[in-house]
Amino acid sequence: MTKIILEQITSIKDLLLFSSAYKEGLIKLNISKLAKELKKDRKTIKKYLNGEVPKETRKRVKYLDEHREYILEVLTDKYQSFDYIDHLFKYLKREKNIACSRTSLNRYIRNDTLLNKLFKRKKDMSFTERFETNPGVQAQFDMKEKVRLIDKNNTETVITIPTLTLSWSRYNVRKLILDTKTENLLEFLALSFEEIGGVPHELVIDNLKQFVEKPRYKDNEAIFTNKLIEFAKDYNIKIKPCMPYRPQTKGKTETQNKIVDQLKNYNGKYKDIYEMHEKLEIIHKEDNDNISQATKLPRRFLLEKEKGDLSPLPRKEIRQKYHLSLKEVHVTNESLISYKSNKYSVPRKFIGLKVGLTVIKGNELHIYYKGKIITIHKITDKLLNIKDEHDLKYEKEIKTKERTTIINNEMRNIKYD
To answer: What protein family does this chain belong to (predicted)?
Structure first.
């Protein structure tokens, strides 16, 4: 009988067909032979013959399955970049409002062969000893340079993000800039101190050429630029330069530089430079509102406690001289501004507002709104200078007769203070 049954079955589940007859004693079977042929344990064979079917493992529908296609899309995008799982998690929270934990996302990606292969995990196993400071004593300054961001028109913008980190509270101040001249960096420091409501006793800096003429070495003190010396005197702050090739000295702000890598998550999605500012503000706010791994408390909460230990700000007249000097102009209804009788476009959202102009390197016109750079133009002799991303429906090449009409329209829109 055992031989006949073996000829009729192809899997252990087929034994269920004979379970009723076996239990009623109508057939006798060689359990050991069945177990050997089916390559199963004797106890398992008996269970099936007695009709005891093990419960099948239910195929679970994972919460993140509904987002898998989107995760796959962003990880395969030729512009978007994710260096850390934490950056991907925060991006999905912002864009898709996912409700799972960071650990769940990490496990989901690691268990998915394709997603795990696409996600380039970077580990830094080096150890750096922490040096803690008292409230109000120290701030660290550093820059994340040459961050390449790409807008919807495939235009690449190379930006720099200066960061000031208070060593005790870990509170951060960040800003997007395009030009790293000394005046821009000093303005950033001045505005940062205004934001935190005071001045720390010392500032740790890297050996930037904008600030340091000769780096610090073992037996030699650093030689600072005159502009930095004047700034330190005005703000009554001690400057402490790092040793060359020793970034651990300002490890707190070095760590914070990783945060701004999240801007690359939106590559290929940006409308313009102004949206880059907006994304940085969102990322920056999240960072300061979140709990610091070092202190186990929110940075913004600790800042309020640290403010009382900061030195007071210098008087307004001193602070003002470090603010960027801009020529204020009005944006016309055509979304244009005037510079030396020629017109330059800005995004439509600034129509009717006042913006600030400054010339960089002699041939670049930088246009600001409320301290944020919103667009850049090459200075030309053309009457109209319009960028494609500003989506203005003007012809770039204008006939002589049309020039007079445009100039007359612009003259009517000029507002005199």
So the answer is: Belongs to the transposase IS21/IS408/IS1162 family.
